């Protein structure tokens, strides 16, 4: 997937937008890592291991991948094809690691909600670290495939641009279909199962309430179901919104090379794909009470210890009803 511009020459609005995206990605995700790593109880929650891994990938997208994209937009480095290819592969590695991080969180939530009694054994700290390590190794292998030989002949003009080096078949048939559509489809299936199970649990819990009227109980159930549906919709919508437009353009350019695609549109979709790393903290973490409280404390210059009631990660306590854990 082209994650940088395909023609040399600095585009100032693109450069500034990418810079803002990079800064937001680094600051937001660095905050997440700081909150988790400085608190012993948060570190002990397995779910937060996946959040740190995702945040680390998104930090690298902002600190390394986006600057690489900006350099390629300017056609740099010139006359050094191997270095250019390595730079583009680095970009691919970190963006792919971010996608795999999103998928890992979906799997963890699925196990937490649908298999709560098996959760402690399936998602032990050792197993979670093994999953995280495997996702990074796989992302590295996928990102380095062009460097291993799956690339176009080096251009004679020496300009370092994504489409001049990366094969269209790699971008579309492998990176898009296998490494983006498959995770998206998997997340859709997992979150659909989560929603149905959490909806069932919400109604089951409501049936046990005897101190409220039937109308109030029904209203409470609908409110929780709406919150649940909204949360899952935001997760999938943001992922699809950020990644699909760019890959649709890539597919169009592969099957119809003569079809005109405006350069500003291509640049906008590139920025949107990178913006996923800045959006992830809001979607996955800042909706949790513990992180909202830490965020408020940080900006009020009075960093207070997190309340014990809030020091849990999403889906971390298998003793809570599944729907309640999902909505934390």
TrEMBL record:
What keyword terms does UniProt attach to this protein? Cell membrane, Disulfide bond, G-protein coupled receptor, Glycoprotein, Membrane, Receptor, Transducer, Transmembrane, Transmembrane helix
Q: Offer a single GO CC term for the protein.
A: plasma membrane
Per UniProt, residues of the G-protein coupled receptors family 1 profile domain are 28-284
Q: How does it sit in the membrane?
A: Multi-pass membrane protein
The entry lists its GO molecular-function terms as: G protein-coupled adenosine receptor activity
- Keyword Phosphoprotein in the entry? The reply is no
Task: Fetch the PROSITE patterns from UniProt.
Answer: G_PROTEIN_RECEP_F1_1, G_PROTEIN_RECEP_F1_2
The record's subcellular locations are:
Cell membrane
Give TM regions: 12-37, 49-72, 84-107, 128-148, 172-196, 226-246, 266-286
Q: Which domain of life is it from?
A: Eukaryota
UniProt-listed Pfam families: 7tm_1 (PF00001)
Family to which the UniProt record says this protein belongs:
Belongs to the G-protein coupled receptor 1 family.
Output this protein's name: G-protein coupled receptors family 1 profile domain-containing protein
């Amino acid at each position: 997937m082209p994650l940088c511009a395909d023609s040399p020459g600095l585009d100032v609005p693109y450069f500034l937008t990418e810079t803002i995206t990079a800064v937001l990605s680094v600051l937001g995700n660095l905050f997440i890592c700081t909150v988790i790593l400085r608190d012993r109880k948060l570190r002990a929650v397995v779910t937060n291991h996946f959040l740190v891994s995702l945040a680390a990938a998104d930090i690298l997208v902002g600190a390394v991948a986006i600057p690489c994209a900006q350099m390629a937009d300017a056609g740099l480095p010139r006359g050094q094809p191997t270095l250019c290819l390595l730079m583009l592969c680095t970009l691919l590695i970190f963006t792919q690691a971010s996608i795999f991080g999103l998928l890992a969180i979906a799997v963890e939530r699925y196990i937490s909600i649908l298999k709560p009694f098996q959760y402690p054994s399936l998602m032990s700290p050792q197993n979670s670290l093994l999953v995280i390590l495997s996702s990074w190794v796989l992302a590295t292998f996928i990102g380095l495939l062009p460097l291993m030989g799956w690339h176009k002949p080096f251009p004679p003009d020496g300009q370092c641009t994504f489409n001049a080096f990366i094969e269209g078949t790699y971008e579309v048939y492998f990176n898009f279909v296998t490494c983006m559509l498959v995770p998206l489809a998997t997340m859709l299936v997992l979150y659909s199962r989560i929603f149905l199970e959490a909806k069932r649990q919400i109604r089951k819990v409501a049936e046990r309430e005897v101190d409220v009227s039937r109308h109030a109980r029904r209203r409470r159930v609908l409110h929780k179901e709406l919150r649940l549906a909204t949360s899952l919709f935001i997760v999938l919508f943001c992922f699809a919104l950020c990644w699909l437009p760019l890959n649709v353009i890539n597919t169009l350019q592969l099957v119809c090379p003569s079809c005109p695609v405006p350069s500003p549109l291509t640049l906008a979709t590139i920025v949107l794909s990178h913006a996923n790393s800045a959006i992830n903290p809001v979607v996955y973490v800042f909706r949790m009470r513990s992180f909202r409280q830490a965020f408020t404390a940080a900006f009020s210059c009075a960093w207070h210890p997190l309340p014990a009631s809030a020091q849990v990660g999403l889906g971390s306590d298998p003793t809570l009803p599944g729907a309640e854990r999902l909505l934390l």
